[in-house]
Batch of 4 targets.
Target 1
Amino acid sequence: SSGINAECHYGRAHGKELAIDSTFELEKKRNVPVKYNRELWQNTIHAMKRIQEIRSRRQNQFIKQRLKAGKKLELKDDEKEVNQHIHLIEPRVTEEEMYNAALNKTKEKLKEKQKVLEVESMDMD
């Protein structure tokens, strides 16, 4: 039976649940009869509203903290996907750009050949 008990409290033990919060202490039943006191009632109602504000703020903070890890993983996955499919994102080369690149390569090769020919003709002289 200890295994079942341990499973029930796993979330609390690992910070998956907002269970360790002092605002829950006030919800416990008190088996002590209290004589009616108007001021006590007003203070209690005021305290209950304030406690609810605090609890909701803590819950929101807790949820945001829990979602941070998921956002980090999602960002990592997105980055990995972008790197895998970068060819889809990179700009496509137009035919004109390809033609100009080929033309520039050809011009460079011709210049190199001319230099080689000039050097050979100087050597022969």
Target 2
Amino acid sequence: GYEGNLVDKNRKLLKEGVLYISDDHKKGKREEYYVILFNNLLLLTKKLHRFKKHEKKKPYRFVDEIELTDVIIEYDPAIKQGFRIQCEKCFLRIYSSNNEDTAQWFNVIRSCILELQKSKVFGVDFDSL
């Protein structure tokens, strides 16, 4: 499970939903994730395939977290209905089911990154000064 702390007075839940993600390690294979976007953090979860049959909803398991402070996001013409995110530990191609949803995710993530960059002074978090 997730070992971090999601409780933070400055953290806000902005968007959640299903996205399809591929990375360099999986050679372009798209996998379904349930993504939870906060103003400073992106949580990636996956459906558990083994679950109790009486449960109506499939449970999810934590896969990874991406801090949005040092992330680059950009559209890539080679990615249809998608965009890419790059950080020190990842290079992800992110896809949605349609262009409108893709644009919404891209714009919300991009605005989070821009807000986080504004809160830094010379690369240092303003709150830590």
Target 3
Amino acid sequence: PSHPPPNPEPPMECICCICLESGFPPWRGLHCNAPESPESPESVETSPAHFVCQTCLEQHVESTLGAPVYVRRVDKGLVKCPVRPCCSPPYSHRDLAQHLDSSRFDRYVA
């Protein structure tokens, strides 16, 4: 039998997992890289590619940057998917550089 690819292409219209607004094209935000869980593929916690719209992503990064040092240490200073729990690795520097303005990205990598 044919199996779907492990990380299918994101849908053409996305729903932000923070503000729950819909209709975003995939390039107006960022998807995490959560693998699909075969036990519960419909679950929000384990579904692939949680989407965060541009505005919410910027606020999520600001929140991460403003977190206490001991909290940031747990995640090694990296920004993770806002869906908890989510087994996706942190967002890559490359992805964040493409979606954040330069001053916000510079604060993130500092």
Target 4
Amino acid sequence: LLSLARQFKELPLLTTLKFNFSGTGLSSSGLLCLSVTLSRMTKLTDFSLNVSDNLKVSDDGYFHLARALENLGFLIKFQLNALRTKITKSGFSAILKGLSCNLQLREISISCHCMLFYQISDEECITLSKTLSILPSLSLLHLDFGLTVITEVGMSFLAEVLRYLADIQTLELKFPW
């Protein structure tokens, strides 16, 4: 992955980047290498990352990814498949913070259920609501959290923000109780 990341340094005008590392044994340090390179891709508008089925990817890797997302600033489309990884509340919140720096975001797709020993709760729903509230051009929102412990409080925060997303065309929320 390190040599691959070095090659991408030579492509500063790249606008679309899609990686599928599902089940490859990727770790958080591998995600760090990718994130360092990613943060230098100032023209990137479309980023898709599938790290599912990699139990060595934990919050440390997601923190690095979040910092890279903060540096991008012009992302329009973001997809993250973090199914069956060790993402927790801290990693998820960091990703949302990174996304909030990309005010032109139109499409967000995040799948992160089956998180070990953790379920999305009201706190993350409120953080998500704050992020969405500053993304006025959002037209597609796909969130798949699997089993959650979200109550009426979290859902009411989210519902309130969704009312103000005038450009939303596709909304898919999977929060099974």
